[in-house]
Design a protein that fits this description.
The complex is a heterodimer of chains A (about 180) and B (about 425).
Chain A lengths: L11 E9 L5 H4 L22 H8 L8 E4 L11 H7 L4 E4 L4 H10 L3 E3 L10 E4 L3 E4 L5 E3 L5 H8 L3 H13 L1
Parallel strand pairs in A: 1-2, 2-3, 3-4
Antiparallel strand pairs in A: 1-5, 5-6, 6-7
Chain B lengths: L4 H9 L10 E2 L5 E4 L3 H12 L14 E4 L9 H17 L3 E3 L9 H7 L8 E4 L13 E4 L2 H10 L5 E2 L2 E8 L8 H12 L7 E6 L1 H4 L3 H11 L6 E3 L4 H10 L19 E6 L6 E3 L7 E3 L10 E5 H4 L2 H11 L9 E5 L3 H10 L1 H8 L2 E2 L20 E4 L15 E4 L2 H10 L5 H5 L2
Parallel strand pairs in B: 2-3, 2-5, 3-4, 5-6, 8-9, 8-11, 9-10, 14-15, 14-17, 15-16, 17-18
Antiparallel strand pairs in B: 1-7, 12-13
Helix pairs in contact in B: 2-5, 6-8, 11-13, 11-14
The chains are: A alpha/beta (about 180), B alpha/beta (about 425).
């Protein structure tokens, strides 16, 4: 299990380790029955728990930090459970999706899980991807896909390294 | 240009006369709700204070509510330990709006909040639960957030960096037919919008169907607005809101009803004729795979669930009891009933609904969320089919990825429990 966070603003290159379709819910990313486990240090073991093979690879350390999940529209729909973001971040995964559900995206930003909204993304498992300033390059196929930038409101939190440090800064300001 | 209800609420909560859609605001929070996941919020809250030299302190403990509902009573020592941690924190910080595992005050957060009078029209309500959208039924702007964001709210009292959402106006006309419920209306709308159709937007409900609907029904509409991706569902507060808050929630202080301007900017307007709607069913494995009940073939199921934050209110249990009174549920079917709160539970005992349901073969469970998300009781076997009045049917939702979940109204659920197959309550189910 890896816990090295990826600085969200850096260009990043990695292999696609999972391609998954539209409407992947938080019940798939982090099944409800593991919700009694809350700490970001403990949630990674249950990532995609019902996708046994993928979960086993993650837990056996067979997937390198910086690897990509490529998903369809509305990734992370459903529950507000933050474990769905912390479980993926704990493995150092990057999620490129055609779209994200609101609360999941906010949780990802708040925790520093790198997400890339890429409405046209097309990739297969095994492909190499590179996230650049305004597009994702599929190194394997040579195709480029435009990236929808994070709204300004969320970039401020990313720039601060997540909501904990952003809020800490505001708290210090308030009490100065 | 006028403003939508969401804009007006956010303008008030930021001390301004107006806000524009898309601009970034930091609204003051009126009510911040959590359930068992407060255990994680506490962890993140303490982390915010680390290295600041400041003592962790909640900005306003009177505005924080904590309700245990997801795994009650605790199903494991791990949950019990988390609940204990929260209980200790509540005592230490003087959080009065705390609903422990008690028959005289507990229940599912999305029923406890309205019935306790905690939600007011015009309020900004945040909750560490996606179905916090429910509280828009009382004219509030209510939305789900993650645990770390809640920790930030506890520390600062504001939501940081919120973009003012656009609004979809839904106009509903005509009368819902017999055995057609608010649940059918919202399932139909989700089918039309799709599961992401309202992503990052608010759904504002209008029209004479909504005006004539009880708060209980409005709570169903706003509860499931999130299943279309909506930030929040809102029914603009009106006479019915005032009646509910005064008569059912015991609120006596002044209320400020916020209505949208006639020239409010809407991203989209959807009109629905309620009189043409059939009972609706969401089929596996997506909430937006919605079909009229009469279009289904013979779907046999093993477990029927009536209850939850969506459909566990008094009128839901009354509707189910009316269909099942004097009958028996089909052989091979388990019927589990989860009242939304202990108050609803007591009211249904006094009204005789629970006796009718038990005599028909139902098992009455204590109020809680557990079965809906597969964390506590009512587990499904491999190959089981469930028909449920809850709000989600994603793969694995009820705890077993090898099971299937169909979603429906209490009327469809009750009629189907009696026959063993998904049944149109206008035909086979009604006596």
């Amino acid at each position: 299990m890896s816990s090295n966070p990826i600085p969200p603003s850096d260009p990043v290159r990695g292999q696609v380790v999972l391609c998954i379709g539209d409407g992947v819910s938080t019940d798939t990313i982090y099944p409800g029955r593991f919700m009694a486990t809350v700490l970001p240090s403990e949630t990674p073991q249950f990532a995609f728990a019902d996708h046994r093979e993928f979960n086993a690879k993650l837990n056996q350390g067979k997937i390198a930090a910086g690897s990509f999940i490529v998903a369809g529209a509305n990734f992370g729909c459903g529950s507000s459970r933050e474990q769905a973001a912390s479980t993926l971040k704990g493995h150092g995964l990057v999620v490129v999706a055609r779209g994200f559900a609101r609360i999941f995206l906010q949780n990802a930003v708040n925790l520093g899980l790198q997400t890339v909204t890429c409405p046209e993304i097309n990739a297969s498992e095994g492909d190499m991807l590179e996230v650049r300033e305004d597009h994702v390059l599929n190194v394997t196929t040579g195709a480029r896909f435009a990236v929808q930038p994070l709204p300004e409101a969320r970039r401020a939190i990313v720039a601060a390294g997540g909501l904990i440090s952003y809020s800490r800064g505001r708290l210090i300001q308030k009490n100065a | 240009m006028g403003m939508t209800v969401a804009q007006k609420i956010l303008a008030r909560a930021t001390g301004r006369t107006s806000v524009q859609v898309g601009e970034v605001v930091e609204p003051a929070v009126d009510l911040a709700m959590s359930h068992e996941n407060a255990a994680l919020v506490i962890n993140q809250f303490c982390e915010i204070y680390q290295g600041t030299g400041l003592e962790p302190g909640i900005w306003d403990p009177t505005r924080v509510a904590i309700i245990f509902d997801h795994r009650v009573p605790a199903e494991s020592s791990k949950t019990a330990t988390n609940q204990k941690k929260v209980r200790d924190f509540v005592a230490q910080h003087g959080i009065a709006k705390f609903h422990d595992i008690r028959g005289d005050q507990g229940g599912i957060c999305h029923q406890v909040l309205p019935e306790s009078g905690y939600v007011r029209p015009g309020a900004v309500v945040v909750g560490t639960d996606s179905h916090t959208t429910t509280h828009g039924a009382l004219g509030a702007l209510a939305f789900g957030i993650g645990a770390t964001e809640m920790a930030s709210v506890w520390a600062l009292g504001t939501v940081l960096n919120l973009e003012v959402p656009g609004t979809i106006k839904v106009e509903v006309h005509g009368r819902l037919g017999p055995h057609v419920a608010p649940k059918d209306l919202i399932l139909y709308l989700i089918g039309k919008l799709t599961a992401e159709g309202a992503n990052f937007k608010v759904i504002e409900f209008h029209g004479e169907t909504i005006e004539g609907m009880s708060t209980s029904g409005r709570l169903v509409l706003c509860n499931m607005s999130v299943e279309a991706g909506a930030t929040s569902g809102i029914v603009p507060a009106d006479d019915e809101t005032v009646r509910y808050l005064r008569a059912e929630a015991g609120v006596s202080d002044p209320l400020h009803l916020i209505r949208p301007d006639p020239d409010a900017p809407y991203d989209q307007v959807i009109e629905i004729d309620a009189s043409t709607l059939s009972p609706q069913v969401a089929i596996p494995h997506a909430v937006d795979k919605v079909v009229p009940v009469e279009s289904l073939g013979s779907v046999r199921m093993h477990q029927v669930v009536i209850g939850s934050c969506t459909n566990g209110r008094l009128d839901d249990l009354a509707a189910a009891a009316a269909i099942l009174k004097g009958r028996k549920i089909a052989k091979g079917v388990r019927l589990l009933v989860f009242p939304a709160s202990w108050k609803v539970y007591m009211q249904s005992i006094r009204a005789g609904y629970l006796a009718d349901l038990i005599e028909a073969g139902a098992v009455i469970m204590n109020p809680g969320c557990g079965c809906c998300l597969g964390v506590h009781q009512g587990a499904l076997a491999d190959g089981d089919v469930a028909l449920s009045t809850t709000n989600r049917n994603f793969p694995g939702r009820m705890g077993n990825p090898k099971s299937e979940v169909y979603l429906c109204s209490p009327e469809v659920a009750a009629a189907s429990a009696a026959t063993g197959v998904i049944t149109d309550p206008r035909k086979g189910g009604a006596r």
